[in-house]
């Protein structure tokens, strides 16, 4: 086995411990054991057995491998890919010695139990393109040194306990950034006007819901024409109106503005978002009507306009062939716009105003009805 360079066991049903005898494969450069959930072992023991100067790839996510990341990880100076995502058992802190792994292009530690601060030495990994620390227990601030990662394309820090600026100014150096996630870090803050000034306009994914990010959405958002996923869900501090330039985001697939302080009318230009499959506007202060231009939402499957101050008739929604989930309770619509006529559609979910004797219109096709306080009864 001394000449074996690549071992691939991924996507099987292997169990037991990773054998220390793999250390006898002194020419090993790549090991893959991904998605063998029955495999176990302590990461420090496993790494100590490998030929550190030759290893380039270690795929070990979605396994039972756990334990701490040892300081000796710095010996793996040739490692380009390290994936331990979804193991749920990797613990301890990130050692500063990870900064010695300067050939890393992909580092995935998502969905584990790693804690402590993100070491500033990560900023030495100049070739890193994909960096995932989501669903862990990190605290402290986002290091400004991440701005040194000028090859970075994807950065996911979501669902931790980070605080401070959500988007350090230095991240503006990451001109190739395509995906940025800080969702669920309630201690992070910033204003949308400043954040969009920092982030590159080629961004395709921006997940920043359940954070302290607020402020208004500037007209410059229209320059983010590659944006596909935008999530500001439950920030409670995003204010102002939606700019008409939102209509320029022709690649937008999902947008979530739920539970903020947005107001004004939904701009008619948003009817140009023909690629959108999910639009969430619920829990704001939007007024006016659902414009005829919204018939352009030909791919829309999910629409939430609940708990706003919308009025008129939602009849334009009959024109949407893909729509199967609609939340429109808590508004001032004067009718259902024919959405229940002639068994027009078999709804997966259609939630309108109260189904009690005081309801303002009949909703025979609703799957649930809700009172103004949001309490709902399923039909």
Q: Helix content range of the residues, please?
A: under 10%
Low-confidence stretches: none
Between the first and last Cα atoms, what is the distance in angstroms? 65 Å
Mean pLDDT: 93
Report the sheet with the most strands, covering strand number, pairing sense and barrel closure: 17 strands, mixed
Radius of gyration: 25 Å
Q: Beta-sheet strand percentage?
A: 25-35%
Structural overview:
This protein has 2 helices and 31 strands. By secondary structure, it is mainly β. The strands form 3 sheets. The protein has a 17-stranded mixed sheet, with no helix packed on it. The chain is elongated, with a radius of gyration of 25 Å. The termini are far apart.
Quick structural gist:
It contains two helices and 31 strands. The protein is mainly beta and 379 residues long.
What features would you highlight for this structure?
17-stranded mixed beta sheet, single chain, ten-stranded parallel beta sheet, 379 residues
Write the layout of secondary structure elements.
Layout (H helix, E strand, L loop, with lengths): L5 E3 L6 E3 L12 E3 L5 E5 H6 L8 E3 L4 E5 L12 E3 L6 E2 L14 E3 L6 E3 L12 E3 L4 E4 L13 E3 L4 E5 L13 E3 L5 E5 H7 L6 E3 L4 E5 L12 E3 L6 E3 L13 E3 L4 E5 L12 E3 L4 E4 L13 E3 L4 E4 L12 E3 L4 E2 L15 E4 L15 E3 L5 E3 L1
Parallel strand pairs: 1-3, 2-4, 3-5, 4-6, 5-7, 6-8, 7-9, 9-11, 10-12, 11-13, 12-14, 13-15, 14-16, 15-17, 16-18, 17-19, 18-20, 19-21, 20-22, 21-23, 22-24, 23-25, 24-26, 25-27, 26-28, 27-29, 29-30
Antiparallel strand pairs: 30-31
């Amino acid at each position: 086995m001394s000449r074996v360079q690549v071992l691939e066991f991924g996507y099987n049903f292997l169990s037991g411990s990773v054998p220390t005898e793999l250390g006898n494969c002194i020419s090993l450069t790549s090991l893959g054991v991904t998605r063998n959930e029955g495999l176990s072992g302590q990461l420090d023991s496993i790494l100590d057995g490998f030929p550190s100067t030759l290893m380039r790839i270690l795929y070990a996510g979605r396994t039972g491998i756990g334990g701490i990341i040892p300081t000796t990880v710095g010996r793996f100076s040739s490692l380009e890919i390290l994936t331990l995502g979804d193991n749920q058992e990797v613990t301890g802190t990130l050692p500063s010695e990870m900064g010695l792994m300067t050939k890393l292009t992909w580092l995935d530690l998502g969905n584990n139990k790693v804690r402590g601060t993100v070491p500033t030495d990560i900023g030495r990994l100049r070739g890193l393109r994909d960096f995932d620390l989501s669903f862990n227990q990190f605290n402290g601030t986002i290091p400004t040194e991440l701005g040194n990662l000028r090859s970075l394309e994807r950065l996911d820090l979501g669902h931790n306990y980070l605080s401070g600026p959500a988007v350090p100014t230095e991240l503006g150096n990451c001109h190739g950034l395509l995906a940025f996630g800080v969702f669920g870090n309630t201690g992070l803050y910033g204003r949308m006007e400043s954040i969009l000034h920092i982030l590159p306009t080629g961004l395709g994914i921006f997940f920043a819901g359940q954070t302290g990010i607020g402020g208004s959405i500037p007209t410059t958002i229209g320059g983010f024409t590659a944006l596909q996923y935008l999530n500001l869900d439950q920030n409670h501090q995003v204010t102002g109106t939606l700019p008409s330039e939102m209509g320029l985001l022709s690649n937008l697939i999902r947008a979530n503005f739920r539970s903020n302080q947005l107001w004004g009318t939904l701009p008619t230009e948003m009817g140009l978002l023909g690629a959108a499959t999910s639009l969430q506007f619920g829990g704001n202060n939007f007024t006016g009507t659902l414009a005829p231009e919204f018939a352009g939402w030909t791919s829309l499957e999910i629409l939430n306009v609940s708990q706003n101050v919308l009025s008129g008739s939602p009849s334009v929604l009959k024109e949407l062939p893909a729509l199967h989930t609609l939340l429109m309770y808590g508004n001032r619509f004067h009718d259902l716009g024919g959405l229940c006529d002639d068994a027009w559609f078999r709804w997966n979910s259609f939630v309108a105003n109260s189904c009690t004797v005081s309801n303002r219109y009949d909703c025979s096709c609703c799957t649930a009805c809700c009172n103004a306080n949001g309490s709902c009864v399923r039909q």
